[in-house]
C-alpha cells in the first residue's frame, strides 16, 4: 500500500516489473462530494484486502509505505486474522508534520532560490497560526522550489532514481491532487491517538537514514505503542526504501 495520499503505484510497478506475486493496489480517487474521503479510503482498503486474501486463500503480507502505514494499521485492527505479517516502510504517523519537515529541508537546500522567501514566510505564518489553511500555503510555496522530489532520496540512490520519480509522477494516474487534498484534510480532523493493535504477528519497521520527513527516534516511540512486537531497522535510504533497495531487502531487513 503506497503513500500519498493520492499517489498511485506507478513507481513500484516500474521498479519491480517482475514482481507479479505482489498486488500493487491502485487506491481509488475521491467520489464527488464525498463527506469522509479518508474513511472511504479505509473502507476501500478493507474491501480490497478481503478480496485479495480470499483469492489467495491465506493470510497475506501487508507492505505499506509512508501514509500507507495508516491503512496497514486499520487492516491490523479490522481483519487481523487475514494478516500474515506487516512491513512498514518509512511510516509517517503525522503527515502534516512530515511535510513541514520536508519544507524546512527544502528551504535549507534552496535558501538562495528566488522563491525561498515565500516559503520562509509561509512557514513563519504557519508557526504563528497552525492549521490546514496555513499548511496548504506552505505546500504551495514549497512547490515553487526546484527538484523538491529529489529530496526524498538518499545520497546512495543516484540521479536516476530521482529523475525517474520526477518523470513518473507526471504520468496520468500517478498522482491525483484533489484526492490528496481531500483525504489529507479529512485525515487531519480524525483522532489518531496511538493504540495497541490486536495484531500479534511479526511487524518490521524500516526508517531511512536520510529521510527528510521523519524523525525516526520520535516516531519509533509511537509505533512501539501500536506494535510492541515490532522490529526496527534503519536503512541507508531516503523516504522511499522500496525505490532504493530491493524488494527482498525491504521484506527481510537485516
UniProtKB/TrEMBL annotation:
It comes from the Bacteria. Keywords: Hydrolase. GO terms for molecular function: hydrolase activity. SUPFAM superfamilies: alpha/beta-Hydrolases (SSF53474). It holds the Pfam family Abhydrolase_1. InterPro entries: AB_hydrolase_1, AB_hydrolase_fold. Residues 59-244 form the AB hydrolase-1 domain. Gene3D superfamilies: alpha/beta hydrolase (3.40.50.1820). This is Alpha/beta hydrolase. It comes from Duganella callida.
Amino acid at each position: 500500500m503506497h503513500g500519498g495520499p493520492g499517489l498511485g503505484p506507478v513507481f513500484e510497478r516500474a521498479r519491480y516489473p517482475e514482481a507479479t506475486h505482489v498486488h500493487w493496489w491502485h487506491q481509488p480517487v475521491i467520489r464527488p462530494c464525498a463527506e469522509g474521503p479518508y474513511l472511504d479510503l479505509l473502507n476501500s482498503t478493507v474491501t480490497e484486502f478481503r478480496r485479495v486474501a480470499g483469492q489467495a486463500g491465506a493470510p497475506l503480507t501487508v507492505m505499506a509505505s509512508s501514509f500507507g502505514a495508516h491503512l496497514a494499521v486499520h487492516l491490523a485492527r479490522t481483519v487481523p486474522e487475514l494478516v500474515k505479517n506487516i512491513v512498514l516502510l518509512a511510516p509517517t504517523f503525522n503527515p502534516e508534520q512530515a511535510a513541514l519537515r520536508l519544507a524546512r529541508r527544502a528551504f535549507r537546500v534552496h535558501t538562495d532560490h528566488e522563491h525561498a522567501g515565500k516559503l520562509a514566510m509561509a512557514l513563519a505564518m504557519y508557526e504563528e497560526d497552525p492549521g490546514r489553511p496555513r499548511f496548504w500555503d506552505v505546500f504551495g510555496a514549497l512547490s515553487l522550489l526546484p527538484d523538491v522530489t529529489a529530496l526524498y532520496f538518499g545520497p546512495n540512490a543516484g540521479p536516476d532514481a530521482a529523475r525517474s520519480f520526477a518523470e513518473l509522477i507526471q504520468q496520468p494516474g500517478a498522482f491525483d491532487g484533489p484526492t490528496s487534498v481531500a483525504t489529507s484534510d479529512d485525515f487531519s480532523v480524525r483522532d489518531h491517538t496511538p493504540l495497541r493493535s490486536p495484531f500479534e504477528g511479526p511487524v518490521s519497521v524500516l526508517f531511512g537514514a536520510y529521510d527528510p520527513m521523519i524523525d525516526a527516534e520520535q516516531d519509533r516511540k509511537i509505533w512501539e505503542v501500536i506494535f510492541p512486537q515490532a522490529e526496527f531497522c534503519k536503512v541507508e535510504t531516503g523516504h522511499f526504501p522500496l525505490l532504493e533497495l530491493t524488494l527482498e531487502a525491504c521484506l527481510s531487513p537485516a
